[in-house]
């Protein structure tokens, strides 16, 4: 299980490149027509689920960067159990249809391989992720995941398009009363040619969709009540001993 921790948010929360074919709705066209600057702009605010997502267009970058901030009714441990379960990412993560471990360097460093389903008429994407995990030193600390694409780690596999970036830093911070705060910032470049409206749709919707899916899995009994030992110590509350 330890080696799968690198699949946390599978570049957790990075906006996966793939999606079914969608017609751009009025909101998406408005967003497409509004040029983002280099300051964070609120994209979605789900007050019922306590999830906020943001976007900005950084200088010198081809696509938007994203940020998420959420407080979920679950625990760090439940999240870790979901994120260790790489084989079940297809149940909740945005258009991932294959994943596997390439190499475990250490209990907290990994290389893994993901495939993302692309819109009809576009090639699917693949990405190699170099992931490192920073563990909690005290109960109030977050578990931090750092993910950076390593496109040259293995040879490309046409007709798949190799993604040059699916980068992210995510913090999972324990809160009182069985809650966890998730804060993440990242950037995704799908590589190749992607219609602008399609990429905008993904950047707008994927971070939110991933968090909703993660929450659904974290409240599933099979993860919430699991007793299997974890590969490292996890603090679920800032007051844990």
From TrEMBL:
InterPro entries: START-like_dom_sf. Keywords: Signal. Coiled coil: none annotated. The keyword Signal applies. It comes from the Bacteria. Residues 1-23 form the signal peptide. This is START domain-containing protein. It comes from Agitococcus lubricus.
């Amino acid at each position: 299980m330890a080696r799968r921790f690198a699949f946390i948010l599978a570049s957790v929360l990075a906006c996966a490149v793939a999606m079914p074919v969608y017609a751009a709705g009025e909101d998406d066209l408005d967003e497409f027509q509004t040029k983002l600057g280099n300051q964070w702009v609120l994209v979605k605010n789900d007050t019922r689920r306590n999830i906020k997502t943001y976007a900005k267009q950084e200088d010198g970058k081809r696509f938007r960067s994203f940020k998420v901030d959420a407080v979920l009714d679950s625990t760090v441990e439940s999240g870790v159990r979901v994120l260790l379960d790489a084989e079940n990412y297809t149940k909740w993560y945005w258009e991932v249809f294959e994943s596997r471990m390439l190499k475990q360097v250490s209990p907290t460093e990994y290389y893994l391989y993901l495939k993302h389903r692309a819109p009809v008429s576009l090639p699917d994407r693949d990405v190699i992720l170099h992931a490192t995990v920073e563990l909690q030193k005290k109960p109030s600390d977050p578990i931090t995941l750092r993910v950076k694409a390593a496109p040259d780690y293995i040879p490309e596999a046409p007709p798949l398009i190799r993604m040059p970036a699916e980068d992210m830093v995510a913090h999972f911070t324990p809160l009182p009363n069985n809650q966890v705060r998730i804060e993440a910032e990242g950037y995704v470049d799908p590589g190749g040619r992607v219609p602008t409206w399609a990429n905008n749709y993904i950047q707008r919707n994927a971070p939110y969709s991933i968090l909703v899916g993660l929450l659904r899995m974290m409240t599933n009994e099979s993860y919430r009540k699991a007793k299997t030992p974890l590969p490292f110590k996890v603090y679920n509350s800032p007051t844990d001993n």
